[in-house]
Amino acid sequence: MLRSRFSIKSLERYFLILAAGVLLPMSVLTAILLIQSRAAFLATADALRAFNVVRATVTAMEMVSAERGPMNAALGASRPVAPRLLDTLQAARERSDRCIAELLALYRAPLSPDSAKEFTNIQRIRYALLHARAQADALIAAPRAEVSGERVLAVLDGMVALIPELRMAMADSVGVVMRTELDAPPLLTPALLATELREQAGLLGSTFTPALAGQRRLTEAEQFRMERVLGRIAQLRDLLEAQLATRPDLRASLVYADMRTRYFGAALRYLEQVRHSAALRPQGAAVTTAELAAEYVPLMQSITQFRDLMLDEMQQSMRQHRAESIRLLAITLVAAAALAAALMLALRQFRRRVIRPFVQATRIIGAIAEGAPAADIPVGKYRGEVDSMFAALSVLKDNAAARRRVERERDRLIVDLAVMAETDFLTGLLNRRAFESRFERTLAQWDGAQDMLAFILFDIDDFKAINDTYGHASGDQALKAVADLCRQTWRHSDVVARVGGEEFAVLCHTANAAQAVEMAERMRLRIAQASVRAEGGAVFALTASFGVACVAWRHAAAASTLFRRADELLYRAKTGGKNRVVAGDIGADGH
Q1: Predicted model pTM
Q2: 250-263 burial: b if 16+ Cβ within 10 Å, else e
Q3: CA-CA distance, 506 to 496, in Å (whole number)?
Q4: Cis status, amide bond into 186, omega within 30 of 0
Q5: How far apart are alpha carbons 118 and 173 in whole angstroms?
Q6: Is the omega angle on the peptide bond into residue 185 within 30 degrees of 0, that is, cis?
Q7: What is the secondary structure of 536-568 as a DSSP string?
Q8: In the prediction, which pLDDT does 249 show?
């Protein structure tokens, strides 16, 4: 009875451990999913805030640009300026001020506590706008005779210069949206292009103001400025067409068709008529700045409508993504709860089968299979079949340990034999057989990525005289010295071997034959500058002769003759005075 109660308590304990082991990973997984979902939610929130900044900036740019319309009308009107025109200008300025105030509010805490720099930048742009308005007011109040084209152009340039400043101010926010939202490129990019198109359209209309205000013809400089703006408008139209090529639904929309009809059609035709009239008549076009604005500005609204369509689509997409992230989070939580309930039910079904000997046996088997040190096997601790299982595991552990020792010894011997079979015992370099094997492998793997394959064959000059004069032991010292210089001179990618008594070979890829010759010359100089101490203490110098055979990728079929060609060039170096480098290329015929 006591043993039965003890077994029941043990099973309960093992069940609790197993349940904790299952629930802990589930909790970690759930926490990871929550953290990721929170990060995605915060990224979406940041993207929405950045998008709000972009949209507010775009609106402010539009209002500042639109402010130039009534300003142009007032500049070109007769003096004194009619109160109606001044009221229209004041209303436009108030709209610009409201938009800039809304933009500043987005950069002000608590909406954006870390945007002090951006807030200051917008304030600077606001002050620049006030200065430009003051210049415009001074010119509006001046007598008509003092309103020259240069002064009008200076006022216009002051207003126009504000738009790039606002565009640069929203660059970081545009980057946040582009990085976060997958739909940003096909939607936000056309909106930004339309914003730029709206500005260029307003700038095109403003180019007429100096001539209309002065009641004169267009100058060549003004004509050139118009052509430049028209070129930019054409470029923006092409960019919009390219962007909308992947969105046939937007390209076929009524708003885009309206923009093509009203602005690219009617508006540009109207300006062309005004331009033609202003170029021909001595007193300029037969329209005032107010009349031009009244006719041209409404046609530009189609650009703004298209831009707003893109921004609305973008905003809707971002809100959908945010809703999807929240929905995914809820689904994940429900699925995690359901899985946890299912695991708990399964654990209840297996509670009586989870006992310590089998868990311990599993760990031992896993350790043996992985080659890791296994825990002590409790042979004799249990009875019956469980004890037989542990006894078998003990034998298996001993056999596995013995097999691993044999395998390690076998692997070490294989590595040693492979090294000994390919290494020259005296110099430690590759031997001739290993070199020939690598030579064949290099030829088979050469794919033309490197244009030139060079075979450099060299041997020590008068090596027999060294042996005869200083002894064979000193000759061995000379060979070792040359081998050390090889290891210091040649690159790790080069194949270097001792292929004969005093003969060495190098196989390497080079950019051209000149590089191979330069490498051989560097090795020759190092050998010539080296000194070897003989057994008796005498010091003697060495020289070597080099044959450098190169083959280009276009003659790769003849590469098998490199060894023979290098040997011929080495012979020429020997017969030509020794201690020199003789090089040659291999052509398609192998010579």
Answers
A1: 0.53
A2: bbebebbebbbebb
A3: 5
A4: no
A5: 11
A6: no
A7: TS-EEE--EEEEEEEEEGGGGGGGGGHHHHHHH
A8: 82
Asked whether the predicted pLDDT for residue 53 surpasses 50, the reply is yes
Q: Report how far apart, in Å, the C-alpha atoms of 49 and of each of 12, 42, 63, 368, 494 are.
A: 54, 10, 21, 57, 58
Helix (H) or strand (E) holding 503: strand 503-510
Distance CA 221, CA 229 (A): 12
Q: How far apart are CA 214 and CA 284, in angstroms?
A: 8
Residues above pLDDT 70, as percent of the chain: 85
Higher pLDDT, 455 or 375: 455
CA-nearest of 370, 469, 485, 468 to 427 is 485
Beta bridge partners of 423: 430
Q: Which of 524, 473, 494 is nearest to 429 (CA)?
A: 494
The Cα angle at residue 141 between residues 135 and 147, in degrees rounded to 5: 75
Contact 125, 162 (CB under 8 A): yes
| Phi then psi dihedrals of residue 372, to 5 deg | -90, 160
pLDDT single digits (tens) 255-305: 889 999 999 999 999 989 888 887 777 777 788 888 888 898 899 899 999
pLDDT, tens only, 323-340: 887 787 778 777 767 776
Instruction: Tell me what pLDDT residue 353 has.
Output: 44
- Summarised one tens digit per residue, pLDDT across range 158-205 is 888 888 898 898 888 888 888 888 777 888 888 899 899 988 888 888
The pLDDT-based confidence of 110 (bands split at 50, 70, 90) is: low
Q: What is the pLDDT of residue 540?
A: 92
Q: What pairs with residue 546 in β-bridges?
A: 458, 581
- What count of other Cβ atoms lies within 10 Å of the Cβ of residue 406? 10
Is the pLDDT higher at 188 or at 397?
188
Residues in CB range of 436: below 8 A, 6 or more apart: none
The tally of CA atoms less than 13 A away on the side-chain side of residue 350 is 13
Length of the chain: 591
373: left (phi over 0), alpha (psi -120 to 50) or beta: beta
Is residue 4 scored above 60 in pLDDT? no
Cβ–Cβ under 8 Å, residues 326 and 27: no
User: Residue 588 contacts by C-beta under 8 Å, 6 or more apart in sequence?
Assistant: 554, 555, 557, 558
| Spatial separation of the C-alpha atoms in residues 269 and 289, rounded to whole Å | 17
Q: Are 446 and 555 in contact (CB under 8 A)?
A: no
CA dihedral 467, 470, 471, 472 (to 10 degrees): -50
